[in-house]
Amino acid sequence: MVTRYGLLSPKTLLFSRQGVLISRKGMVLMARVELFTEELAAIADPSYRAFAAACLEFAPQEFWTAPASSSRKYHPEFAHGEGGLVRHTKAAVRVALDLLRAFPELEPERDVIITAILLHDTCKVDPDTGRTDPDHPLLPGKRYERFAGMLPPGGYEEVMALVETHMGIWGPVDVWKMSPPLPERMGAALLVHLADYVASREWVSEKILA
Length: 210
Ligand SMILES: [Fe+2]
Fold this sequence. Notes:
With 210 residues, the chain is mainly alpha-helical. It has nine helices and three strands; from the N terminus they run H-E-E-E-H-H-H-H-H-H-H-H.
């Protein structure tokens, strides 16, 4: 049986520019966005689910193929190599879902949180250099603006605020230093940052993808 992790193995897959995954033997296996079927199903509101899927379909090609860390200095072993950034994103959603169990008061923000995590690193790779763009938290807000109308009023801004702050103290927008501060979004912002941070620790096992 092919596991989700196995399905992403570069040994068995090629990533097509046409938005599908094909096997080394040339078979079309699935639409790329279907790699996130389970994560999208964790979004309750259909408008957020459809928005997240539309953005993923429109994500840069590099998102689907790049490792999570161009330097290999960070991230666990499973997030290295082709498709590593996709595997990291899936791991971050898994951590977020576990954290939500511990913080039920943030449950009403689940859809915004999961949507933000799905998109947080989609623009991470600079297509010219193949390396991490340090301003990547700011890029999804521009790239996916065309889909903003799929969300309820204010929804797009809420999602993108969480994307912008996902790197915490290491990113271009630090929630702790925002003026005015964002106390009403602080819990969700911290959860998104923590999910990304924990999922990128070197000691995380690939069992997180099982
Ligand atoms: Fe990340």
